[in-house]
């Protein structure tokens, strides 16, 4: 058994989420695999450092980042995440937005099949950290820069690996089951009325533009990272994470990015964006918890729109 293990660069057993969670940040466990991948691409290895963890194993080596995607044995289906992130980095380069430069990508068939991406390392602070220190003018400039980035990013995309947001998937989502049945029925009717008959243009969307997924360097340049939740969808699919997780409904940033967001048309679109978003039910649940609202009190889309208007206008509704 031990001799068989020694044939591999990666010698630990992965059998479900728990086993992966216990080892995916371990530098010593991943070091032989990382060094072999770097050698394969004629890259110089060196000191390995941990970076902010997510689902996958992410490490820094000098001025490079390697993301090793969880294998299927972990219980995570990251094969599609790998393809999505790879295509998204190419799209980011095509439309010339600030994002890590893709250096290499591939797979290492070791004890498990590991997909990996090697990118340049972006030195800076995440936007979540920086925005806490920003004054009014800095917030405004940040939101204007982000608006310029998304105007380039939210365009037609040539890569078919990025999944299209399907009406059927939206309607069949189980994530809204914690909300009243009467609300869920109205949500489905609302989506069908808004999307089925007047389908908006579908473009590339990042899908999770939060402070943790942006790096701000010393020159105040914004870099977009972590593209695994990208979808081909209506442009406003970007809105829920931006409004509630990134801006936290801050009035300065909201006005800089959206203009006059007090109009009824804005809340019509924001409401629709929330109920079609993959994380929409989670965001709404956090809003309810933050303001001590029972989800049972939201009975239809009119209730939802009024709730969103109230707490966006408050300027202090931030979720994670």
Keywords:
single chain, 320 residues, alpha+beta, Phosphorylase Kinase, domain 1, Aminoglycoside 3'-phosphotransferase, Chain: A, domain 2, three-stranded antiparallel beta sheet, 13 helices, 43% helix
CATH C-level name of the largest domain: Alpha Beta
Task: Give the CATH H-level superfamily of the largest domain.
Answer: Aminoglycoside phosphotransferase (APH), C-terminal lobe
In order across it, which strands form the biggest sheet?
1-2-3-5-4
Number of strands: 10
End-to-end separation in angstroms reads 45 Å
Helix content: 40-55%
Overall CATH architecture of the largest domain: Alpha-Beta Complex
Total domains: 2
Profile the largest sheet.
5 strands, antiparallel
Q: H/E series, N to C?
A: HHHEEEHEEEHHHHEEEEHHHHH
Structural class category: alpha+beta
Number of helices: 13
Contiguous low-pLDDT stretches (5 residues minimum) are none
- Would you tell me which CATH topology of the largest domain applies? Aminoglycoside 3'-phosphotransferase, Chain: A, domain 2
The coarse overall form would be: globular
Strand content is 5-15%
Radius of gyration: 21 Å
Mean pLDDT: 94
Would you spell out the secondary-structure blueprint of this structure?
Elements lengths: L1 H4 L11 H7 L3 H14 L7 E3 L6 E5 L2 E5 L10 H16 L7 E8 L3 E8 L4 E2 H5 L4 H18 L13 H5 L9 H16 L5 E4 L8 E3 L5 E3 L6 E4 L4 H8 L4 H8 L5 H13 L3 H11 L10 H13 L7
Antiparallel strand pairs: 1-2, 2-3, 3-5, 4-5, 6-8, 7-10, 8-9
């Amino acid at each position: 058994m031990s001799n068989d293990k020694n044939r591999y660069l990666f010698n630990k057993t992965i059998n479900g989420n728990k086993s992966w969670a216990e080892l995916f940040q371990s530098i010593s466990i991943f070091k032989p695999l990382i060094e072999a991948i770097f050698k394969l691409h004629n890259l110089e290895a060196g000191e390995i450092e941990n970076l902010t963890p997510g689902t996958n194993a992410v490490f820094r080596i000098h001025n490079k980042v390697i993301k090793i995607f969880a294998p299927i044995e972990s219980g995570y289906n990251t094969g599609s995440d790998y393809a999505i992130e790879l295509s998204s980095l190419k799209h980011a380069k095509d439309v010339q937005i600030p994002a890590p430069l893709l250096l290499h990508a591939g797979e290492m068939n070791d004890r498990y099949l590991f997909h990996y991406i090697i990118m340049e390392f972006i030195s800076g602070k995440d936007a979540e950290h920086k925005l806490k220190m920003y004054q009014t003018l800095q917030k405004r400039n940040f939101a204007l820069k982000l608006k310029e980035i998304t105007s380039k990013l939210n365009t037609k995309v040539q890569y078919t690996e990025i999944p299209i947001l399907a009406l059927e998937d939206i309607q069949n989502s189980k994530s809204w089951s914690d909300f009243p049945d009467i609300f869920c029925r109205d949500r489905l009717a609302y989506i069908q009325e808004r999307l089925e008959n007047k389908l908006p243009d579908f473009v590339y969307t990042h899908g999770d533009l939060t402070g943790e997924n942006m790096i701000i360097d010393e020159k105040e340049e914004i870099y977009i990272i972590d593209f695994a939740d990208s979808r081909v969808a209506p442009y406003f699919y970007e809105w829920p994470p931006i409004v509630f997780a990134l801006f936290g409904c801050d009035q300065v940033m909201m006005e800089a990015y959206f203009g006059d967001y007090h109009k009824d048309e804005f809340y019509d679109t924001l409401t629709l964006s929330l109920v079609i978003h993959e994380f929409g039910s989670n965001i709404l649940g956090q809003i309810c918890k933050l303001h001590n609202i029972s989800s049972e009190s939201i009975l239809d889309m009119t209730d939802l729109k009024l709730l969103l208007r109230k707490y966006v206008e408050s300027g202090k509704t931030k979720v994670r």
